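Limitations

Structures in this collection are predictions, not experimental determinations, and the ligand pose is part of the prediction. Treat each record accordingly. The example that follows, with manganese (II) ion as the small molecule, is included so readers can see exactly what is and is not provided: the inputs are given verbatim, and the output is the predicted complex.
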Amino acid sequence: MKHTLPKLPYDYEALEPYIDAETMRIHHTKHHQGYIDKYKAALEGKDELLTKSVEDILSDIQKVPKEIRQAVINNGGGYANHALFWQVMKPNGGGVPKGKLQEIMHDTFKSFEEFKNAFSETALSQFGSGWAWLVADDKKTLQVYSTSNQDSPLLKGHTPILGLDVWEHAYYLKYQNKRADYIEAWWNVVNWEKVGELFDEL
Ligand code: MN
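Predicted complex:
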């Protein structure tokens, strides 16, 4: 398994004006690359673990030796979380989900607006660095919550289908301390087709 930086499915400037090109470039080439490099460094010499996908490793974290487990949680989390993040955004995104996801979302949250409010509030109130998530479990039950640092929902047996990075490195250049403005803008670039696909694949 080659652990390399995945290509973005769009250009760095494609998410303007909501997410600026400079933030995207640094976030992808420096931050995401850094997590991948440190993940590989943490697993150096552990060939049987390196053959697995990072998602499989995080889903079965007890198999990772204790002395390197926290490094794998941090850097493997950063590796996997960002790989998902790029995929669930696109230029001219936004709108609402369709199909089965829309149905279950309405059953769970009553309406798209209520889901959106819950997610935004979760992202806003995450203290310090972390992520807001829409996750599904093996029964396809949806939940919204946040995690600190780079902790992946995979660690709890949940599959993330939508994630929002609320580390300051994700928004500080354009939004400074105004996390709420970043969150509000971000809804315009959500790729609901992709999120729906991830849900359908479960
Ligand atoms: Mn990030």
